[in-house]
Amino acid sequence: MVAADNLRRIDSKTEFDLSIYLKQRKQLCEEALEKSIPVVYPEKIYEAMRYSLLAGGKRLRPILCLATCEMTGGNIEMAIPTACALEMIHTMSLIHDDLPAMDNDDYRRGKLTNHKVYGEDVAILAGDALLTYAFEYIASQTKNVAADRVLRVITHLGRAVGAAGLVGGQIVDLESEGKLDVSIDTLNFIHNHKTAALLEACVVCGAILADASSVDLQRLSRYAQNIGLAFQIVDDILDITATQEELGKTAGKDIAAQKVTYPSIWGLEESRLKAQKLIQEACEELESYGEKANPLIGIANYITARKH
Amino acid sequence: MVAADNLRRIDSKTEFDLSIYLKQRKQLCEEALEKSIPVVYPEKIYEAMRYSLLAGGKRLRPILCLATCEMTGGNIEMAIPTACALEMIHTMSLIHDDLPAMDNDDYRRGKLTNHKVYGEDVAILAGDALLTYAFEYIASQTKNVAADRVLRVITHLGRAVGAAGLVGGQIVDLESEGKLDVSIDTLNFIHNHKTAALLEACVVCGAILADASSVDLQRLSRYAQNIGLAFQIVDDILDITATQEELGKTAGKDIAAQKVTYPSIWGLEESRLKAQKLIQEACEELESYGEKANPLIGIANYITARKH
């Protein structure tokens, strides 16, 4: 019986085509994002917001939110405003991260960074506006979800983005710059907050919208934290092994900045193994969902396999 | 009867002591703000947030929110998380506004600006964290208010802060810099968005929390837009007439930057008259609330009388 079950799951996994799934979902997200910010007076700020928000990217965060909402019994309609908000927040963090006072990056997703096109002042404001709009968008656009659940989504997302999450991770990252004795605990803190917290929010907010149980939320939180850390390890590996063309951003920056990374501590091969182990453990959290977990399992595996 | 009513109102106005009221309410806000952000690891970001949030100031925004909530039938407890959030957002806008890429100010409220103490990178992140925390704080801390009303508060506040509000005003302000032919319409747009929108949100959000009627919300919105514009006119006047010591920030900046201001268009005396007229019209919106409007009337008059 167990063997038959396993076989059926393997079959269904074969049937599930991740690349078609991702392509369709990405298209859905692009359309929703395109519609989310109309251009009105004063046009410059809306254009600056749209420049970075609509600059492509894999849209993994909104896709994760939609996938989790569906897996736990909700639907796309419920989750699409939160999915868009997650991408707005991710984009805002990239715009501010690229500023001269921060990482001072000229390219992002193969295009000039926001401040290179619009100036630093507008880029700071475009980030502020995207961050604000994300919360406004969830509060005003979410349909067919009880208001108290929407408030829980806003609370969870706020925690993932602010000083207790993404911003806290960036602060420790800045403090660690140029230091050669960064511990693995500090490195984990940085990435658990800078990268994993927002990915966790994508997944957990999708499940909150679908009114998932607290057991579900805990499972999904562990899944997301694992893929978040794996995502960062792979990012560090790609910074060493990929070309600028593949990345769409400056390659080899970590080495140039003498930054402590997972490969610099563990080496490339061990880093790859650790990432795979994290992904495997992430997928084990999803066993009880059966075939419905195919998208989340596929995305987890995609993270270690990606080339950019 | 009308005469007697007027007399009673004048008496009660005499009895209402604005300076005691503002002092007590400021104390209340200081205590709530002090408690709102505990310092945990990574300490630097919380310290940077607290440095600017707890740097004094008149706390007019949170006081307006509390006063309006009470006037329209709510209580302080309902409104205190939103009141704190409004001050967090105001503080965040000052931190980002003072950055070298924006106004490049070294002093604010008589203290070094955030980036002068913590560096530009931390100041950008402290602003982001305060903005995020404001929405999280409203969503997680508001008690005894129906969830759908809390969502309306978040929506209204988001609109007041983002591209359709404060940020939009800042963008037009930046575009107008160095131009000598800025029209009165553009100047009004800037200040209706850069200053009045957040003051309007203070008042309207306080009323939403108290479940005020849409007629009340419209009246209060007009009151707040008027005092917001008056506030800016008085700010422009003070930039010319007050000393740096009185202002706690660099004085005479507008003239040095050849900035078009209300006094530069209307002259000082006409500007004073216009501010007074706006305040008078603002107070007329409050007639139906009787004595309960004393705090809002007092604050409106305080705006034109203030020296810093």
Automatic annotation (TrEMBL), chains A, B:
Pathway: Isoprenoid biosynthesis; geranyl diphosphate biosynthesis; geranyl diphosphate from dimethylallyl diphosphate and isopentenyl diphosphate: step 1/1. Gene3D superfamilies: Farnesyl Diphosphate Synthase. It catalyses: isopentenyl diphosphate + dimethylallyl diphosphate = (2E)-geranyl diphosphate + diphosphate. SUPFAM superfamilies: Terpenoid synthases. One of its GO terms (molecular function) is dimethylallyltranstransferase activity. GO terms for biological process: terpenoid biosynthetic process. One of its GO terms (cellular component) is cytoplasm. Its EC number is 2.5.1.1. It holds the Pfam family polyprenyl_synt. Its cofactor is Mg(2+). Keywords: Isoprene biosynthesis, Magnesium, Metal-binding, Transferase. It comes from the Bacteria. InterPro entries: GGPPSyn_CRT-like (IPR054848), Isoprenoid_synthase_dom_sf (IPR008949), Polyprenyl_synt (IPR000092), Polyprenyl_synt_CS (IPR033749), Prenyl_diphosphate_synthase (IPR053378). It is an enzyme of class 2 (transferase). Belongs to the FPP/GGPP synthase family. PANTHER family: FARNESYL DIPHOSPHATE SYNTHASE (PTHR43281:SF1). This is dimethylallyltranstransferase.
